[in-house]
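<instruction>
Derive structure tokens from the sequence
<data>
Labelled lines for chain and fold
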Amino acid sequence: MNVLVINCGSSSLKYQVIDSATEGVLAKGLCERIGIDGRLVYEPKGGEKEITEAPMPTHKQAIQMVIDALTNEKSGVLKSLDEIGAVGHRIVHGGEKFAASAIITDEMIQAVEECSDLAPLHNPANLIGVRACQELMPETPMAGVFDTAFHQTMPQEAYLYGVPYEYYEKYGVRKYGFHGTSHSYVSRRAAAILDRPYESLKTIVCHLGNGASVCAVKNGKSVDTSMGLSPLEGLVMGTRSGDIDPSAVEYIAKKEGLDMAGILNVLNKKSGVMGLSGVSSDFRDLEAAELEGNERAAAAQRVFNYRVLKYIGAYAAAMNGVDCICFTAGLGENNGVTRRQICESLGYLGIQIDEEANKKRGEEIVISTPDSKVKVLVIPTNEELAIARETVALLK
């Protein structure tokens, strides 16, 4: 079965077509600037990347352009739309309603809409993609795969905040966590690489990119994660502040004359390593700036690494030990310096890094030495494949 995987944002849409039998990618790409002017990037397997500039007033037109590219006579990978057996949609927030992926029905869409207050920038955009696909492929089964679902196994002590309990009861104020599809995929892959039963491992997954989170996976279940009610909690990130004293928020708001929308804009879009460095949210730019003697860029990287290190230590304590630590996502997969600097302070866990292995970029590899008590791995994440697998499993 061919599965079309859709990851829909407010003005963009990422897609892949995956053959579920071989798990090979037949084609992938991106629609950008939807509702502005429109740009389609299409990469068929074994072919050249194609870029088309064309109007995309809505997501429906964007998805139609994707379908046209996939089925065109010259470089299409499908003979017709009938060769798409299912569509898997990434949906960011499922609240407490969804502890697993779900077949998309009218009732399911309504439940996702009811969670939109918890993810106002993401869920409405995700549902736009769902409805556009339903219009164009009304007979094709579809599934929703939630970023939050994997973390629904967290115990109360991990997800409850120290605020009046009635806020949890009335409004669902609690930790939900994100990047769940990635954390699930990487932790399962680690068990396979180490040839250990997934249900027997204590794994810490570090999803380090512009958005970043750490997750504790004990016996195959998420028991804690660094992101919270929203993706703002946790690590210092590219442009997000991560953990911060709420009083500091009030103090900054008063000094700068900012309302709640203004302060959240600062914390989400002007903070993190970009705010600290004044250079960029891209760690490659920070490294280059540090080499030129920019101390703020160097400090921003130290702050980032320190936060990751603290969460690893906290989660090793929460699980009463750790068997393996995994690095994934753009920074985690490609930056050996960051990995080494984080692991240098984990000697108390018996971690030893193989310097040559750690120089590798973007490969699935064990970077700890054979005598390291805790195994350290680099595992490129593959959320699209995970979504395709979930979709096929639901249909079966």
